[in-house]
Amino acid sequence: MSDDFHDFFDENTHWVEHGTAAPAGNASEPPRPPKSRKEMRQRRAQRQRKRFSGIIIAIVVVALIAGGGYFGFTKLMAWRDSRSQSTTANVADYPGPGYGEVEFTVDDGQSAAEVAQNLVEADVIKSAAAFTSVVGANDITLYPGTFTLKKHMAATDVVDVLSDSKQASGFLEVRPGERANDVIEAAAKLSGIDKSEFDKLVDDKGKGILPTEAGGSFEGWFEPGTYNVKSMTSAKDVLKAMVDKRIAKLDDLGVPSGKERERVMIIASIAEAEVNKADYYAKVTRVIENRLEQGMTLGMDSTVAYGNNVKPAQVTTAMTQDDSNPYNTYKISGLPPTPISNPGDSAIKAAMEPEEGDWLYFCTVNLDTGETKFATTAEEHDKNVAELRQWQADHQD
């Protein structure tokens, strides 16, 4: 009776929420009397069959979707693999190892596609695709420089060479603290351009290359960095590349223009030459400013050495007494006429913003570590010099 009773209400009861309309039809008509138990059992069985059929249909649909997706996925992967194999098979490539000799240059910033096209034009590889596919598949880094290759090489062999920076040549490395004549000599050697072509530009005071504030001297006006001089066709191109990059860097650093810019460069070059630690640069530039303010000579071995074209360690007492040397800051007050090297960023920043202090002297007391001590009085400085002399005595061969 309980099942029959619930079946009756499932079939015939209409729930009406408060405030909503009643079902269509005669709202006052009472519910129909219960059907026979047989009929109610039949209807209940029918509902169960419908419910079961719905579940089966849902399962079948999900299965078909999953099966179809897997089938489609496997077909897609098979198509991709076959396409990849077909593409690989169609990429033209030389078997290698090749013959002859080719000087090939990779410029800084060139893409793999650009390098590949140049390799094809040089008849080093058979197709650009053979090269770029190897680079892309292995996430290879190609280095700038001039490399020695062969004609008709296998693409993988070419990639091995161009991804090895040790095999690159023709790139000039300009380091902070280097002198202009050393940079020019190296540039001539690496570029293959006759040194006399560079000398002409130096003798002509860098006309058309140097800014006015340089005063016709290249010293200090070569920006430290790497330059592909092998790819440049003239001495002017080489020197202009380094000077232009220096000017751009000075602008970025906010170095004042005109005479003040040259002054900053001179002070920075002395700091670069006198100590080998960036931590000391701002103290050295403060010493220079303090001595200039008090009318003292700078007394820097580095400037005397520059004027004599020797290293600071080779400065002699006679050199410090030679007042014919315009760079002898023991005898001549004020700054030297030009920078004495190519200062780096840290030294330039130190020249613009010297550290606060009243130091008038400094002395490197350990030539191995570069330890440098600063002093405000001559007596204190003499003690530091004595410490240096003792260190030199202890480390004589």
From TrEMBL:
Subcellular location: Cell membrane
Keyword terms of this UniProt record: Cell membrane, Cell wall biogenesis/degradation, Lyase, Membrane, Transmembrane, Transmembrane helix
GO CC annotation: plasma membrane
Signal found in the keyword field: no
GO biological process: cell wall organization; peptidoglycan biosynthetic process
Catalytic reaction annotation: a peptidoglycan chain = a peptidoglycan chain with N-acetyl-1,6-anhydromuramyl-[peptide] at the reducing end + a peptidoglycan chain with N-acetylglucosamine at the non-reducing end
Site label Important for catalytic activity, positions: 274
Bias-annotated ranges (Basic residues): 34-47
Ranges for region Disordered: 16-47
Transmembrane segments: 52-73
Topology class, membrane: Single-pass membrane protein
GO molecular-function term, one example from the UniProt record: lytic endotransglycosylase activity
CDD domains (UniProt xref): MltG_like
A UniProt-annotated Pfam family: YceG
Documented EC number(s): 4.2.2.29
HAMAP family: MltG
Family annotation (NCBIfam families): endolytic transglycosylase MltG (TIGR00247)
Task performed by this protein: Functions as a peptidoglycan terminase that cleaves nascent peptidoglycan strands endolytically to terminate their elongation.
Family: Belongs to the transglycosylase MltG family.
Protein's UniProt name: Endolytic murein transglycosylase
Classification lineage: Bacteria, Bacillati, Actinomycetota, Actinomycetes, Bifidobacteriales
